[in-house]
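B., you asked whether I could sanity-check this one before it goes into the benchmark set. Here's the sequence:
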Amino acid sequence: MKKSEIEYLDIEPKNEYETLINRVLEECFHTEGLDDFNIYISVTLTNPENIRKLNNEYRNIDKETDVLSFPMFEKSEIPNLKKIEYEEALGDIIISVDRVKEQAIEYGHSFERELSYMIVHGFYHLMGEDHIKEEDKKIMREKEEKVLEKLNILREE
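And here's what the prediction gave me:
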């Protein structure tokens, strides 16, 4: 069962992006016990101009960002998705590939690590996690790191 639907908005498609995204999402689904759920995530890879427009349109923030997440369900509804017979989107993740490249350099790790982190981060937002409060941020970061460690996509020391 597919875990993602990947689209490109004004950037060149690359098989290595798709391979990595699918690998990371498979682990996210597995870690959270969603393997048997008939759900997938829509992932759009785009450029800074498009993500800025979307950030402004949906969040009223007129600036570029790295990742946007748009959940389709409340956190409390997710367990009930196991019962659905038809395929349903858990939500949308939109990523600025240029920003991923910049942040990989800024943080001193690989593009693979940064893109993987954006996918995991977006996934947990779709699962209802947040990082506004410090205690919530700690929980979310632990979940993100757990998935990345299972994939052996580690921070470069």
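One thing to flag: The radius of gyration is 15 Å. Otherwise nothing jumped out at me.
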